[in-house]
Design a protein that fits this description.
The complex is a heterodimer. By secondary structure, chain A is of the alpha+beta class. Chain A folds into 2 domains: about 1-35; about 35-235, Glutaredoxin. In chain A, about 60% of the residues lie in helices and about 10% in strands. A 6-stranded mixed sheet of chain A has the order 1-2-4-3-5-6. The N and C termini of chain A lie far apart (about 95 Å). By secondary structure, chain B is an all-alpha fold. Chain B has one domain (about 5-140): Up-down Bundle (de novo design (two linked rop proteins)). Helix content of chain B is about 80%, strand content about 5%. Chain B is built from 5 helices and 2 strands. Chain B has helices spanning about 5-30, 40-50, 60-75, 80-105, 110-140, and strands at about 55, 55-60. Chain B has a two-stranded antiparallel ribbon. In chain B, helix 1 runs antiparallel to helix 5 (about 110-140), helix 3 (about 60-75) runs antiparallel to helix 4 (about 80-105) and helix 4 (about 80-105) runs antiparallel to helix 5 (about 110-140). Chain B is elongated and about 45 Å long. Classes of the chains: A alpha+beta, B mainly alpha.
Amino acid sequence: MEELRERRRRRLWLVGACTVVAAIVVAIAIGVSQSDSGPTAESLAKDTASTNALLDGIPQRGTSLGNPAAPVTLTEFADLQCPFCRQYSRDSFPALVRDYVRTGKVRMEFRALHFIGADSIVAARAAGAAGLQNRLWQFVDLFYKNQKDENSGYVRASFLRQIGAAAGVDVARLERDATSQAVQQQLAAANGEADRAGIRSTPSFLVTKAGQQPVRLKSPSLGDLRAKLDAALGT
Amino acid sequence: MSDRRLAYAIGIVALIGLGVASYLTYVHYAGESPVCLAGGGGCEKVQTSHYAKLAGIPVSVLGLVGYFVILVSLLIPGETGRFVGAFTALIGFGFSLYLTYLELFKIHAICQWCVASAVLMTVLAVLTVWRLMEAESRVSTIA
């Protein structure tokens, strides 16, 4: 009887120890998963190469990409934390740049909205600051390629420095400009423009041609965008 | 419940878990979206989030390994097999708790496949610990 009780006690200890060790293993794994501090140099180099291949040689000024005299403007309203904006950037943006922007037919404008959370504001300010160095589009494209979950706290200074350096901006200047009056005004103007256009979600777009009413698009497919751009271009 | 029945029950649940983990591993590497029964894209959002990998390894692969080890533990005779099974299932249970927390509070999306796996791993943790305890008391009683 005593032996039975002793064995039972030993077994309970074993199960308890097993549970504690399992908990420690899980805690270590969680620690490893949360210490993910940003993209690796190798993945960032790959992303930078594809971004540069897409955008190199296209005129860029502030928030504009492409021929300043292009007959049609495509204005993108986006939150850098928004996963659907990343989807647009991955699935539609390269084809639009290749077929419409590089050919001089369409100019793109970027409007950084920031409603998802605190990380959106920090990211939008950094994008605006990259625009002051005429590298906004590289910054935005690389940001999307390395986007993580909304409000998970990944938009830290170290992350922005990595993306900024990969986008080819002067990182020290980017950090200074991010809190500048010019960038604040740029973001306020983007919000005002979105309000006036009745834009409530991202990604949203305006297709504008001089003398015509702008066409508003909400989370469009590549086909939708092509159709509206072609209609505006009259092709 | 007899040790044999517990082993059968563990085997069946682990096999179902292996199926779920295999499917999620397949869609991960095939670049496809998991079929989400209620729609809404919750599975895709969870699968494509950066939490879907742990130290570069897809979580579904870790699940696959976990279920496989639990199945293999049934083939190991005696206390060692029961211990390996319970230990692995307890680790799996801890992970499932963490992953469910991420789905609810970080990713803000629920993947039905992940919920199914979490339920299976919880059942396995109960069954394997039960088997570990039962076997000893039965041996003791016989002795």
